[in-house]
Amino acid sequence: MSEIFQRAQRYKAKLKLAFCGPSGSGKTYSALLVAKGMNCGRIAMIDTENRSGELYADLAEYDVAPIGPPFSVEKYIGAIKAAEAAGYGVLIIDSLSHAWAKEGGILDEVDKRGGKNAFTSGWREATPMHNRLIDTIL
Fold first, then answer.
1. Tens digit of pLDDT for each residue in 100-110?
2. Residue 50 burial by Cβ neighbours in a 10 Å radius (0-12, 13-18, 19+)
3. Band of the pLDDT at 116, cuts 50, 70, 90?
4. Which of 3, 62, 95, 129 has fewest C-beta within 10 Å?
5. What would the DSSP string read from start to end of 105-122?
6. Is residue 126 a contact partner of residue 109, using CB atoms and an 8 Å limit?
7. What is the dihedral of CA 69, 71, 74, 75, to 10 degrees?
8. Each residue of 10-48: b (16+ CB within 10 Å) or e?
9. pTM for this model (two decimals)
10. Dihedral of the CA atoms 103, 107, 113, 116 (nearest 10)?
């Protein structure tokens, strides 16, 4: 055996997967099929799409946490941590884009806090909010 190489070992890693596409392209449907196929335990879904995530209740067993406006980072983080605490094996976030571009999302917060110079003052507070959300997901 070389000093550079070592024996490969299998370890548990958590899948982080994003589905991107236009409305109606099958993102939610595909996410549920993947979640069901992973066979990793109970499935949870954060649903920001007016409860449309429940349209697939015949496809798999899953629990839903509806989130409505304002789509604050705190709401997302709270729901993610609740899913983790409840022991769900899979969490589907449908849709994360609301945390960025909808009412109460990051861009909305930049506009509210930015005043005349949104780049310096608005983003100074919004960037850490975004980072907290991403860190919570990871």
1. 999 999 999 88
2. exposed
3. low
4. 3
5. SHHHHHHHHHTT-IIIII
6. yes
7. 60
8. eeeeeeeeeeeeeeeeebbeebbeebeeeeeeebbbbbb
9. 0.86
10. -120
